[in-house]
């Protein structure tokens, strides 16, 4: 599935949210932004020559904010361009110096230019669409589960999370490890 758009929201909600509806146009970027914040990076689509400034880790391993690194095109450390052939580069975004030397520990000491992201991130998109669908019904109380005289929310939510347990399980595939 390509990058999410209002037509995908209309299809997912079976026309309940129209592609030109102001609520759809408000919820779509909010849902994508919330999912990207949760994951710690943009996830999809692939971004060519994305330039990111990072704090130096001060250790032997540099972890780039991606889980899908297609190409590292430039890496500058403390203002000096590094020779990419002198680096070991993982497709998951980990980089080591072949010499075993440590990375700088300076704040904003690294500038990286890379191509990264997923062309297809169906689980990511499904979680965002589910969030949009659920959020659009929040003003009417959502879809409660009713058992006899009792009713409760049908979606299990973690405290402090915008996402249901199911949505989080879909997004966890794309989530960066929390920094220590």
Structure, described:
It contains 4 helices and 9 strands; from the N terminus they run H-H-E-E-E-E-E-E-E-H-E-E-H. The chain has helices at 6-12, 22-39, 122-136, 165-171, and strands spanning 47-54, 61-63, 69-77, 80-81, 87-89, 94-97, 110-116, 144-147, 150-153. The strands form 3 sheets. A 4-stranded antiparallel β-sheet has the order 1-7-3-4, with no helix packed on it. The chain has a 3-stranded antiparallel β-sheet with strand order 2-6-5, with no helix packed on it. Helix 2 packs across helix 3 (122-136) and helix 3 runs antiparallel to helix 4 (165-171). The two termini are 33 Å apart.
Q: Please state the overall shape, judged from the principal axes of the Cα atoms.
A: elongated
How many strand units? Answer: 9
For the largest beta sheet, what order do the strands appear in spatially?
Answer: 1-7-3-4
User: Structural class given helices, strands, pairing?
Assistant: alpha+beta
**Mean model confidence by pLDDT:** 91
Binned strand content: 15-25%
Biggest sheet record:
4 strands, antiparallel
Number of helices: 4
Q: How many domain units?
A: 2
H and E string: HHEEEEEEEHEEH
Helix content: 25-40%
Distance between the termini: 33 Å
**Runs with pLDDT <50, length 5+?**
none
Computed CA radius of gyration, to the nearest angstrom: 20 Å
